[in-house]
Amino acid sequence: MRDLQNRTALVTGASRGLGVYIARALAAEGMNLILVARSAEGLERVADELRATGCKVQCIPTDLADREAVQVLAEQAEAESDGVDVLVNNAGAEYAMPFDQIPVERLDEAVEVNLRAPMVLARLLLPKMIARGRGHIVNISAANGLFGTPYSEPLCATKHGMVGLSRGLRATAKSEGYPVGCSAICSGFVTESGMYDDLSQEFGIRAPWTLGTSRPESVARAVVRAVKRDLPEVFVNPIPLRPVAVLAALLPRLTTWLVLRLGVAKVFGPVAKTRAAASSAGES
Ligand SMILES: NC(=O)c1ccc[n+]([C@@H]2O[C@H](COP(=O)([O-])OP(=O)(O)OC[C@H]3O[C@@H](n4cnc5c(N)ncnc54)[C@H](OP(=O)(O)O)[C@@H]3O)[C@@H](O)[C@H]2O)c1
Predict the structure, then answer these.
(1) Which backbone phi and psi does 273 adopt, to 5 degrees?
(2) Which of 51, 161, 169, 281 could cross-link with 182 by S-S, CB 3.0 to 4.6 Å?
(3) Going by DSSP bridges, is the β-strand pair 180-187/57-61 parallel, antiparallel, or unpaired?
């Protein structure tokens, strides 16, 4: 979709973190916005900022782990706008813990929020996009949607799922000639805002210098670029991630070795171990 002016975008996870930057970037393109997250207060704060720039914004506070609420969200978003033209599946949560100690309910939640809700929203909104003759779905995946990182199995599994969902949707759209696009955004660590920044502040961890970090504006720009140019996959990281993704497909054993040598375990490992220790101290 080249012209985004006066079109409507639904952005999940827009109460804080990267979603705020994505919402700002889409607003700057002249889009109307539907902001979604659990925190009504967080959404209204972002909405107030965007309304002050002349953007038309609606907030729909929703828990994406609630299946019925996801259905209602899709219906309400369509009914109360001229139709959702761009869906940005951005909301997500991290579950850095030793895998054998993660409560099973947390695994269910990871799948619901990080994968099922995006898939259901796409399923419910896509037919309307096709009927209107325009639309784009952006799935915010991550670098660990392309290769495995230690102590982050739920994130790796769901982010790989987001890449798979995007590839599947795109293949069907191309095969059927649908007037819709679909993109996955795969970013490495992002500073200044978002979940990695929160972990850095809480646990004092640092992304390895070998991988580097990006700014949230880069992710937001990648989303706009993906929609306007109908890009299949956009990688956001100071060192190129595409070769690592290719390597992961060709030589998975070497890729695991490389990822560990790059020091990725030093990011999620200490978080996972500290949380596990805190959780067993709480149980005893
Ligand atoms: N930050 C990074 O370094 C990084 C790197 C690669 C990919 N990503 C991806 O980028 C996306 C955004 O992450 P972020 O860093 O901005 O994370 P964040 O700061 O933790 O923000 C997560 C957003 O998702 C919303 N959310 C979480 N659980 C939800 C639920 N059950 N229902 C509805 N909304 C929910 C949160 O809002 P409420 O709490 O108000 O519900 C918040 O708006 C995620 O998909 C993440 O995996 C981030």
Answers:
(1) -70, -40
(2) 169
(3) unpaired
Q: How far is the CA of 113 from the centre of ligand 1 (A)?
A: 10
CATH entry, 8-283, from 3.40.50.970, 3.40.50.720, 3.30.70.270, 3.40.50.10140: 3.40.50.720
Token duo for residue 167: 């590839």
Among 38, 105, 116, the mutation site with the greatest number of ligand 1 atoms within 8 A of its Cβ is 38
**Residue at 111: amino acid letter:** V
Q: Atom 8, ligand 1: which residue's CA is nearest?
A: 142
Beta strands, E only, the chain: 8-12, 32-37, 57-61, 86-89, 135-140, 180-187, 233-236
Contact 179, 246 (CB under 8 A): no
Q: Residue 130 contacts by C-beta under 8 Å, 6 or more apart in sequence?
A: 178, 179, 180
Question: Which of ligand 1's atoms lies nearest the C-alpha of 143?
Answer: 6
Tell me the DSSP string of 137-161.
EEEE--GGGTS--TT-HHHHHHHHH
| CA 94 to centroid of ligand 1, rounded, Å | 8
Q: Which of 91, 244, 95, 98 is nearest to 157 (CA)?
A: 95
pLDDT tens-place string over residues 252-273: 999 999 889 888 888 899 999 9
Atom 42, ligand 1: residue with shortest CA distance: 13
CA 120 centroid distance within chain: 15
Look up residue 77 and give its two tokens: 């978003």
Q: 10 Å Cβ neighbour count for 119?
A: 19
**Residue stretches of the chain with pLDDT short of 70:** 283-284
Distance from Cα 15 to the centre of ligand 1, integer Å:
9
Measured in residues, the chain has a length of 284
User: Residue 35 has which token pair?
Assistant: 């902001």
